Amino acid sequence: MQNSRLNLARKIFFFIGALLGLVLLAGCEAVTLTNLTPPSIQDNPSRIYTITLRVTTKSKSVVPGSVVPHIIIDGQNQVMAKSPLGEGIYEYEYHLPPGRTTLAYYFLVNYEVSFNERNEPRETYSEINNVEVVSRYVLSLEANRGPIGARVSLLGRGFTPQDVLYFDSMPVRTVYESSTSLSFFVPALGASHNYQVTLASVNGNTPVGTFRIDPSSLSVFPTSLNLRTGDVQILTFTVANPAPLGGILLDVTTDIPESVIMDEVIIPAGQTTLAINVQGGRPGSGNLYLKGFEAGEVTIPVTVTAR
To answer: Whole-angstrom Cα distance, residue 208 to residue 142?
Structure first.
């Protein structure tokens, strides 16, 4: 008799435990939360950012229409609105206060489950999520290939005059145009190769993309210069194809800088030739150099004699 009572008590305890387990299971695993907001978002003039949540119902015990998502942000509990993106997606439009670039929040979802012909309230919540608002970013390169000397624009936001672009590990001539635009001149590196372009600043390095330097040819007339101090001679540069938008910078260097006086050489967009004046300075003998053309370098001998 005593064993029968003990068995009955065990059965009742087991039944209650199983029943309680089913209720807890229905509450804990009935819905799942998925944060659809990226960890970094681009700055905008309105400083209003959309935080998006997907609520997935995994149990038939969830009462239809009972799901109410909340976002807890800045110590405030705000109800999220249904999103036009689809069923089970909710949004909250957050206005970031001035001076802040980060925000933290978590989701709290209330809902009801149906059990034994009655509805019981349940809730679940997410982990804390952090978002950084990025005011500096790169959108795109104007082009991803071009000849040596071509000027190429870079579009984005948050640029400064201190920014420098690199081809692999080599800094290239960078021109600050505005906070939303930079440009650079394709450096005299090996042609028919792809280079990783990186934007470097005091805030760190930002990958930009890949740029391919195409081979190009150049002719110079005359092929050598003989000048007296103060005399001027015309030097003409000719490229095979019309210069692209922004022109082509010919990076002319010399080993006798005090003997050669000349302006920067930029062939205008749409043109193939440029004639410039070269003036003799102090007496000396050396060369003008243009890297990246013909067999790798064009050399123009220069001799300057005294009057």
So the answer is: 11
Tokens linked to 183: 């440009």
Q: Tell me if 290 sits within 8 A of 218, measured CB to CB.
A: yes
Task: List, in order, residues 6 or more apart from 246 with CB less than 8 Å away.
Answer: 150, 151, 152, 153, 183, 269
Contact 192, 214 (CB under 8 A): yes
Give the pLDDT score at 159.
Answer: 86
Q: Which residues contact 268 (CB under 8 A, 6 or more apart)?
A: 243, 247, 274
Asked if 91 contacts 83 with a C-beta cutoff of 8 angstroms, the reply is yes
Residues of the chain with pLDDT under 50: 2, 6, 9, 13-27
Instruction: Say how far apart CA 72 and CA 50 lie, in whole Å.
Output: 14
Q: Looking at domain 137-214, which CATH architecture does it have? A: Sandwich (2.60)
- Pair 102, 133: CB distance under 8 Å: yes
CA distances, 109 to each of 69, 72, 176, 257 (Å): 4, 11, 48, 73
Whether the predicted model's global pTM rises above the 0.85 cut: no
Extents of the domains making up the chain: 29-134, 137-214, 218-305
pLDDT attached to residue 45: 75
pLDDT at position 24 is 44
Q: Which two structure tokens, joined as six digits, stand for 270?
A: 């749409």
The CATH number for 218-305, chosen from 2.60.40.10, 3.20.20.70, 3.90.25.10, 3.30.360.10, is 2.60.40.10
The CATH-assigned architecture of domain 29-134 is Sandwich (2.60)
CB neighbourhood size of 267 (10 A): 22
Strand-pair category, 129-134 with 40-42? parallel
